Amino acid sequence: MKGVMLEVPEHILEERRLSGADRWDEVWDGVLHMNPPPNVEHQDFEWQLETWLRQFWIPAGSGNKVYHQVALSPDDNWVHNYRTPNVVLFRPEHLRFLRPTYCHGPCTVAIEIRSPGDETYEKLDFYAQLGVPELWVIDRDTRKPELHVLKDNSYHLQASDADGVLRSEATGVILSHAGKLLTLQVSDRAESSRSLLE
Hints:
The protein is of the alpha+beta class. The strands form four sheets. The chain has a six-stranded mixed beta sheet. Helix 3 links the parallel strand 7 and strand 8. 27% of the residues are buried.
């Protein structure tokens, strides 16, 4: 159910702060979006994905970083305009945008785990304006990945190859999907292949 309040009463905001429910909130150009907490399946899958990326995408000495729930914003006063992907990937050239509490600019890849009825696709223009080179959208229920590549200030959905494989140029990660199974592999390290199950 969607709801719109012209002004959110302070007691509701305080209740959300005290309960921790506000950690999933986002502010879109000054408008508060109160997202429900992710369900258990979503949380398990997000943990598996982040764990795999930390284990296999961050080789020693690469300088790559993986975080979850980092707010991305174009503004120094970030609390008035930010989106929070489930997982964010940084190559060294994008780490200069990372601040202690948010990212003032683009990460290398933003990953959204899409749940039914959420606002994932409404965020694409924001990420494009920020200059995020790639956006991965992975369906929570089917594990099917989409790879959106930034070209000419907008995202273009990359088609999979004849084998149903998507190749991330920004990261060197290969994504493939069959049934409810997502398999990830770092292109130059075949031993790093691993399946993420439902």
